[in-house]
Amino acid sequence: MTHKSDWEKDNLKGKIKSQKITYYKVYDDEDNYGDYIRDRSGSVIRSYDEEGHRKKISIFDYNDKPSQIMLSGYSYCTSKFNEKTNETNESYFNIQGKHVASKIYKFLPNKLDYQWIWRFPDGDIAHKKKYTYSENGLLIKEEYFNSENEYIDGHNVDFWEHAKELSKNNDYQVDILEHRHTFILYKYNDKGLLVEETYFYIKGEKPSHKYIYVYNDYGFLIEKREYFGVCLTKERITYHEDGTRTVESLFDKDKDLWSKFLYKYNDQGLITERKKYDSNSCFKERRIYEYDEIKNLVLEERYSPQEKLLNYIEFKNAYFSF
Q1: Exposure of 121 by Cβ count < 10 A (0-12 exposed, 13-18 middle, 19+ buried)?
Q2: pTM given for the model
Q3: How many CB atoms lie within 10 A of CB 322?
Q4: Greatest CA separation found in the chain?
Q5: 3-state secondary structure of 212
Q6: Strand 221-228 and strand 127-133: pairing?
Q7: Which of 112, 233, 259, 271 is buried deepest, with most CB atoms within 10 A?
Q8: Percent of the chain scored above 70 by pLDDT?
Q9: In DSSP terms, which residues pair with 187 in a beta bridge?
């Protein structure tokens, strides 16, 4: 089983050295005849090594000073990959530079030893989790340990065998999400198009939800259905001669329109504009997207129905090489 690089997990293309994401909010300055004021609300910097391993994530406030996420309590995270042991060590620090948590995980051919270690103010370890996998990469056991590495709880995950049996059918394919808490069962038609996507979680033996995909005679997706036991929502997709695409989200129960999106694309197939409409087909907002030559985002802008700039995000990408 192959594992995605951190580049791929962050939806990046090319050999990116670092990416700075800066968030801006925009509002009218009434004292200056409606001029726009652009306020930085914060930024995030992610850096990588040449193999695509994430090295550090740093969080800054609107003054470019170190900030921190309130719920998790960290301002920056360093990540170090050991090629010899195939082990990643992530360390989290608060604004004062104090080490508040660590995460250590290690990939092996037949299992993943994944440890989430919380540290008390004095540096002592709080607890640890461990996940064990079968030879084909399916999660079979989840265990919890205390600070003394003593076993305190856990359970076997027997229902993964069901996924393994289904995956023997040529119509199906199994994928394991990050840290293997979830697996997805894919089903394809005779044209190789995805027609069914079912999600399973380790806490339950029944599927949590699934998606059904419907295509036209040309192989273009025209409908996506989401099920939580019963069909909850639908996405209806319409293609237009000018190359645009409309996506309508509907509640299945009463067939009411939930929202509608109209997409435009460039010659490379990248989205350049998205318009949003509400349940009454009233225009609500417009977003535009710009990319660099490697097809990574460099700008996302959001406008009101009156074409006032509301907020935008800048992406500054630095590469090792093209």
Answers
A1: exposed
A2: 0.68
A3: 8
A4: 68
A5: strand
A6: unpaired
A7: 112
A8: 68
A9: 172, 196
